């Protein structure tokens, strides 16, 4: 059980600097249990704490775990250069609390992207040692042939890699569409593997990470949600 003063609580949740949070509170913009709390020194038990700011409801979260259905033309990098960053799709306070994408999708790749401010979670999810399988739906410029599927399953040689890399699984789902599961997460991996196998990736969507699928989350492009304990467990399960 942890009690904290309201200004510290709001700051920890990313609502701005301590000074700004104190002003919000003193201005009567924060309510707890339906009552305005305008004393920033008032302290509250953080666990299970619900509050409103500017009439919007929030729950205290020590760490946040998010899923975003990333649209095309957004960058995952911390300092985006050619397109807006994915954090611009989320409420501002997530950037304040240093929420970061778990790994990266290319600016033109759509689909499931995890974000968190929990460094251990980010590390565990992106560690190559864990081999978290990621499912992609790739649209190809040339038809998907048995030969292409065979090459990707057998392994293709990418520049700068010491040995050929194989897809964990790969199947044709349309004339120009295939599902491919990778365990590594190397730079432009699907696009480079398709190119090395003599095709070209025209569009790419990530549809699942581990056992967590976009379909389960039901997110439209550009939408995000908090991940609950069951969804986090799906990510962790083998
Ligand atoms: N592979 C790619 O080529 N791009 C991505 O964004 C993800 C996997």
Explain the overall architecture:
The chain is an alpha+beta fold. The protein folds into 3 domains: 3-59, RNA-binding S4 domain (Structural Genomics Hypothetical 15.5 Kd Protein In mrcA-pckA Intergenic Region, Chain A); 65-128 and 212-236, Pseudouridine synthase I, catalytic domain, N-terminal subdomain (Alpha-Beta Plaits, 2-Layer Sandwich); 133-209, 2-Layer Sandwich (Alpha-Beta Plaits). The chain is 24% helix and 29% strand. The protein has helices at residues 6-12, 18-26, 92-96, 119-126, 146-154, 189-196, 214-217, 229-236, and strands spanning 3-5, 30-32, 35-36, 43-45, 50-53, 56-59, 65-70, 100-101, 109-116, 134-140, 169-174, 177-182, 201-209, 212-213, 224-226. The strands form 3 sheets. Strands 7, 8, 9, 10, 11, 12, 13, 14 and 15 form a 9-stranded mixed β-sheet that branches. The protein has a 4-stranded antiparallel β-sheet with strand order 3-2-5-6, with no helix packed on it. A two-stranded antiparallel ribbon has the order 1-4. A hairpin with a 7-residue loop joins β8 (100-101) and β9. α1 crosses α2. The mean pLDDT is 95. The chain binds uracil. Uracil (URA) is lined by residues 105-106, 109, 188-191, 204.
């Amino acid at each position: 059980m942890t009690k904290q003063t309201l200004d510290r609580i709001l700051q920890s949740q990313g609502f701005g600097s301590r000074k700004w949070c104190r002003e919000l509170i003193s201005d009567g913009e924060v309510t707890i249990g339906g009552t305005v709390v305008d004393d920033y020194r008032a302290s509250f038990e953080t666990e299970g704490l619900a509050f409103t700011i500017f009439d919007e409801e929030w729950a205290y979260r020590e760490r946040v775990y998010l899923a975003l259905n990333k649209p095309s033309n957004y960058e995952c990098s911390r300092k985006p250069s050619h397109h807006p960053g994915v954090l611009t799709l989320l409420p501002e306070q997530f950037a304040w609390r240093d929420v970061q994408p778990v790994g990266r999708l290319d600016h033109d790749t759509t689909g499931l992207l995890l974000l968190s401010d929990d460094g251990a979670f980010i590390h565990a999810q992106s560690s190559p040692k864990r081999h978290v399988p990621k499912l992609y739906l790739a649209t190809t410029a040339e038809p998907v042939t048995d030969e292409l599927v065979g090459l990707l399953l057998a392994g293709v040689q990418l520049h700068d890699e010491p040995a050929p890399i194989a897809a964990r699984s790969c199947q044709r789902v349309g004339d120009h569409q295939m599902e491919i599961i990778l365990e590594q997460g190397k730079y432009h991996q699907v696009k480079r593997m398709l190119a090395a196998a003599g095709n070209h990736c025209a569009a790419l969507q990530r549809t699942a990470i581990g056992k967590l699928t976009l379909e389960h989350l039901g997110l439209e492009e550009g939408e995000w949600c908090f991940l609950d304990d069951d969804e986090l467990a799906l990510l962790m399960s083998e």
